[in-house]
Amino acid sequence: MVDRFVLSCLCCCCLVGVLADSNAVKSVPVTEGDSVTLNPDLSVKQSDNLIMWNFKTNGYLIAKITTNHTSIIDDVLDGIFRDRLKLDHQTGSLTITNTRTEHTGVYQVTISSKTKSVYRFNVTVYARLPVPVIISDSPQNSSSSSSSSSSQQNCSLLCSVVNVGHVTLSWYKGNSLLSSISVSDLNNSLSLRLGCLDDSYSCVVSNPINNRTKYVNVTDLCRPCSDCAFCCHASEALVRLALSVVVGVATVAIVFYDIITSRKGVNERHHDLQYKTAS
């Protein structure tokens, strides 16, 4: 009976220990240069808690809180955390100030008391986004009149960002998405071919927590829509032209038919008159 009771107690203790450990990883995005606080959300901090913060899972120890002492170990990994770590002795939270992209990674906090709890935070530091640059990618010179005419009626734009990765680059007309690419390279570009331009076109660079927009300047790039009636809404212009041709042909056919019918009627009346006269 006693053995069963002891075994039950041991199982309960093990179960409590397992439930106190959290395998969930909380995602924490932050913009480079900003501060981020990782809080294990301790409802009540026990006086005998031992709290250890590691960079990477079971990796480098960077901070520790004991009963009467707080330690920060910021000289690891060539000092990437030097003068950037702050510990809150009351809550056990860790703050990283002036974040940089090399601070991206998993941070693990282990809280040991009567039970052992483990919490993990996946921190992603995103670089600050630059404003996209839009240039005209249309040919400047043309060897033939046909290609010259084509270059005047079409506009190729190139939107680019440099020295930033893991972003999405998109072209918009108003609020409508025209095209988009997601890239990880540091130098990215996205082209757009248009008949003409207006103020509603824009290029947007974005990441999960921020975005920057650059609007097309119609006075500097290509031809504005007001100067090329056949460039903008080309399909609509073609439809209207086709309808005009159809209406014109139908009108000519009706007039021609009416003329023929009229002449035929005159000839029939003249023939009837001659027949009556002869009789």
Structure notes:
- Among the domains are: 25-126, Immunoglobulin-like, CATH 2.60.40.10; 128-138 and 153-226, Immunoglobulins (Immunoglobulin-like), CATH 2.60.40.10.
- 26% of the residues lie in helices and 35% in strands.
- It has helices at residues 2-20, 145-153, 234-278, and strands at residues 25-31, 36-38, 50-55, 60-65, 70-72, 85-87, 94-96, 105-112, 116-126, 133-136, 155-162, 167-173, 176-183, 187-194, 201-207, 210-215.
- The protein is rod-shaped, with a radius of gyration of 38 Å.
- The termini are far apart.
List descriptors.
279 residues; Immunoglobulin-like; six-stranded mixed sheet; four-stranded antiparallel sheet; 3 helices; disordered N terminus
What is the fold's blueprint, element by element?
Layout: H1 2-20, E1 25-31, E2 36-38, E3 50-55, E4 60-65, E5 70-72, E6 85-87, E7 94-96, E8 105-112, E9 116-126, E10 133-136, H2 145-153, E11 155-162, E12 167-173, E13 176-183, E14 187-194, E15 201-207, E16 210-215, H3 234-278
Parallel strand pairs: 1-9
Antiparallel strand pairs: 2-7, 3-4, 3-8, 4-5, 6-7, 8-9, 10-11, 11-14, 12-13, 12-15, 15-16
